[in-house]
Amino acid sequence: MTDFAQTRALFHLPEGMVYLDGNSLGPLPKAAVERVARTVRDEWGDMLITGWNKAGWMDKPMNVGNRIARLIGAEKDSVAMGDTLSIKVYQALASALEMNRPRKVVLSDSGNFPSDLYMAQGLCKTLGEGYELRVVAPEEVLDAIDDTVAVTMITEVDYRTGRKHDMAAITARAHAKGALTIWDLAHSAGALPVELAKAGADFACGCSYKYLNSGPGGPAFIYVAPRHQERARPALSGWQGHDAPFAFDLDYRPARGAERMRVGTPPILQLAALEASLDIWDQVDMAALRTRSLQLTDLFITGVEATCPSLTLATPRDHALRGSQVSFRHPEGYAIMQALISKGVIGDFRAPDIIRFGFTPLYTSDADVTKAVDILAEIMANSLWDIPEFKTRKKVT
Amino acid sequence: MTDFAQTRALFHLPEGMVYLDGNSLGPLPKAAVERVARTVRDEWGDMLITGWNKAGWMDKPMNVGNRIARLIGAEKDSVAMGDTLSIKVYQALASALEMNRPRKVVLSDSGNFPSDLYMAQGLCKTLGEGYELRVVAPEEVLDAIDDTVAVTMITEVDYRTGRKHDMAAITARAHAKGALTIWDLAHSAGALPVELAKAGADFACGCSYKYLNSGPGGPAFIYVAPRHQERARPALSGWQGHDAPFAFDLDYRPARGAERMRVGTPPILQLAALEASLDIWDQVDMAALRTRSLQLTDLFITGVEATCPSLTLATPRDHALRGSQVSFRHPEGYAIMQALISKGVIGDFRAPDIIRFGFTPLYTSDADVTKAVDILAEIMANSLWDIPEFKTRKKVT
């Protein structure tokens, strides 16, 4: 059984701040400070080029991938790290579309993170005639899977509302209709137990800087189901995904397995930070994490609904449909979030009217939740968000 | 005038090591230790999500690009950082091919780094019917540019031999024949003065972990000539290249200028290391760097040729055709390099028979060159490379 008071102590949480934005950028694992410093000083500094072998840099994308595999229910050696989530979405999409010719439709929903849609739009344009991204409402996804669909590209947990799709049901329906599936786990990996293999998912990808706490710009991951690994042609056929990168052949020949989805030189400093975080994750029981996550989100929903009647819950009440965040709608959402931030409660605003709060059992306490509810209630009761300084429009992330 | 004894003091160079592999992985700028630590501790740790604005993370890809622009003769705001070199090659290639329809031929040479060729092969396969990567010998490039060529994809300095192409001549010829140009500056950026704007280059890309000393897996850069920036469609259309990334529109609309070539979340820790290195580069006069580089490579060539008759020079003697490295051929090149490394002289082996040495004025001294020559001469005179421990085949980078 995971002791979440103990894991909380392993993170640096600034004094006086209630951080409910770990679904945007996870906080610093204390051990990452020394881990990154050691990589800079003792590995890069002292080993120089020999670090690729001596410090195991070359193998990190697959070794780290194997540690993430447990968190997302993936088979050994089926997860490769690198690049960014958008790039990994592109790779999965390009492979899947080619595997499922002559179909040409990518099905997604309007709750997907826009970058996934953009990458699909870009790829469809590159592929040309007939390729199409079809976007439906989240609740229409299941019915929209027909036998014209080549691949479904769905983010399991909605980045705005926290609504969770039924991965097993959508995957089963897709397969019944002859479609392949790509699951974006940006708001799932480290947020709740994911069972890729059990659900029969074909491809998946996700980022590591949210619930997995790897720091700003940490590398992404891609999952390729073992049954597809030898057929999936990497559209981004870089040398690190070559079967023999150091033979310097003039012709590309993909590596065996998911390693073929590596592209260029891996970001060793970012990977070091991620490894420090995974030292914590290695100890976490995912079922216990889910139980705790639902306690936290329930507590917040109950508290806010009891004190802030003008906020409308955007997150499903049904546990089966909820990720690890809670969102409310309000026309002045942007200003409300600015007021919250000024009082030390860090959440996120997502256009047009969503304020969202991430609940991350590794370091969110009941006291955090209570304090956040109290401050939000005070802001709403006194219309603090209605004063000019909180209305200034700024770029938010 | 740059004082290269002074810049040398700014790098961490392990005691007793002669490091001639800065063309593979540059050494650690001493200031990078604290710079990265500060980014981890004070920015990620204390600012958390607000670092995207407060610490300027969001703008780093273009701000850092502008500092590299001076080193490669690029216009302001025409260089974007991110991803890896292979990804940036793909982006340039996809845009250029689309801009130059209906032509379908990518011209490159067999001296190009294989990953560039692989990425082109992958893209041609994705684009389908008629798309072709045509690979000629390096010396045939100029004549091979005919009016079927859509784009030339040439690495200016050969990663094995150090032979330098004539960027201005090839670009002029390409334009005369209606082709666009992509220049890979992996072994040029920070190695010698590059004049992209003056040469009329269309696209360029490069990595930062070689001569630019950003550390293992540091981000790549892409250059788009200002005249193409509004027409170049990003094939990898990620949200960070969107005109309004935080509007979360469902449709992609490219940002103005080269910023559209950004894809996903930038790697902030790796960028911090690069910035520490650029603090040194900001002070370097590129003409002085070139003069010094040629002194160093001349000194090494003269020394080795006087003492090691069985080694065959693979690098051009003509200064105009030489980058900032020197390579020799020998059938036992791999074992010779192993012997050198065991004696503290770090160079690189490149299949099938090349030993290569990078000369990097920022920290390579005359004493380094002399010592390397002496040790190489001793190894060759005594056939030290002929003993079994140096013949063991291992993965080298």
From TrEMBL, chains A, B:
It is an enzyme of class 3 (hydrolase). GO terms for cellular component: cytoplasm. InterPro entries: Kynureninase, PyrdxlP-dep_Trfase, PyrdxlP-dep_Trfase_major, PyrdxlP-dep_Trfase_small. It holds the Pfam family KYNU_C. Signal peptide: none annotated. One of its GO terms (molecular function) is kynureninase activity. Pathway: Amino-acid degradation; L-kynurenine degradation; L-alanine and anthranilate from L-kynurenine: step 1/1; Cofactor biosynthesis; NAD(+) biosynthesis; quinolinate from L-kynurenine: step 2/3. Its cofactor is pyridoxal 5'-phosphate. It comes from the Bacteria. Gene3D superfamilies: Aspartate Aminotransferase, domain 1, Type I PLP-dependent aspartate aminotransferase-like (Major domain). Pyridoxal 5'-phosphate binds at residues 85-86, 113-116, 155, 184, 187, 209, 239, 265. Transmembrane segments: none annotated. GO terms for biological process: anthranilate metabolic process; L-kynurenine catabolic process; L-tryptophan catabolic process to kynurenine; NAD+ biosynthetic process; quinolinate biosynthetic process. Coiled coil: none annotated. The modification N6-(pyridoxal phosphate)lysine is found at residue 210. Its EC number is 3.7.1.3. Keywords: Hydrolase, Pyridine nucleotide biosynthesis, Pyridoxal phosphate. Catalyzes the cleavage of L-kynurenine (L-Kyn) and L-3-hydroxykynurenine (L-3OHKyn) into anthranilic acid (AA) and 3-hydroxyanthranilic acid (3-OHAA), respectively. Belongs to the kynureninase family. This is Kynureninase. It comes from Tabrizicola oligotrophica.
